[in-house]
User: Fold Sushi domain-containing protein 2 from Anthurium amnicola.
Amino acid sequence: PPLLLLLVCNCCLPQCGGLRTPRSSMARSLLLVTVALLILVSAAVLAEAGVETHKPMKAKCKSRAWQHRYCYIVPIECPKRCPRSCYIHCRTCKPFCICNVPGAVCEDPRFIGADGITFYFHGNKDHDFCLVSDPDLHINAHFIGRRGANMSRDFTWVQSIAATFGAGHRLYLGALKTPTWDDGLDRLSIALDGEPLDLPKEEGSSWRSTSTPGVSVSVVRTADANAVEMEVEGKFKITAKVVPITEEESRVHHYGITADDCFAHLELGFKFYSLTGDVHGVLGQTYREDYVSRVKLSSRMPIMGGEPMYAVSDLFSTDCQVTRFVGAAKGAAIATDKPLLSCESGMRGGHGIVCKK
Assistant:
């Protein structure tokens, strides 16, 4: 740090106007002790400032396909911009940030639509909103949050999601309330049709449904704790990770997080296989061929309004104003397995994000 260099310079270098090089062993020892103390103080200051010291996590390609054989289960470090939340694209064998690709729902909450445009939908704390609604699929999210000081809105995060599909099947994924965060303690809650799923706490452990005739539901742990990939074959795939609000995030953004709750929430990545051309919802509408974004892209924080349109009476309800759900697949499906896009802005927050293949 400049302060350390300046002090050392003043102590040692004649041209700086400080003392000349010490001639006695006592003076040299005193100088070394002084420099060591300065280094320790500087390190403490950097730690207090919230400089990240944790090593990035490593992710692996889990596909056993022949074309992915050179990438399969090779540990690859997550990028610095998302050290705790990435996945490996098996075809390219490169890491991608979960929150920087179309279909992402992360942070407070920041969405990236199928068109690659980033927007925020704040909703309201302790309320539920429709993310996707289609004739055979409906996905809601439960928002938790705090009212910001001197603000007219809540700080919000997605605590849980619920998907209703097919003949009334219900899939739930949520983050458990947590006072103090521990990476090794699993805080995920998963249930299918009201029955909790208990996966072994080990990366790669998996579960597949046997009680949903005609519908294949699978869940795989992508880490020993707090990260899974869920898929309903032919309909959708969800990549999910439970993360806390850190003290540094709370300080920088003035969230006001207290010691009794670190507001554990979900970072989500959605991939859809068979949406219809009439799909709606906060995220779902961006998959329509005729969709034109209404958010103000020149804004520092492009916001998707219209909360009343997307509000539902509870997490498993399909009664939002824009609902399309009827419980059986109808309408012409559109392909949504689009070429992989990487959406990045160079800063955490997403304003001005650009997507490219």
The chain is about 15% helix and 30% strand. The radius of gyration is 25 Å.
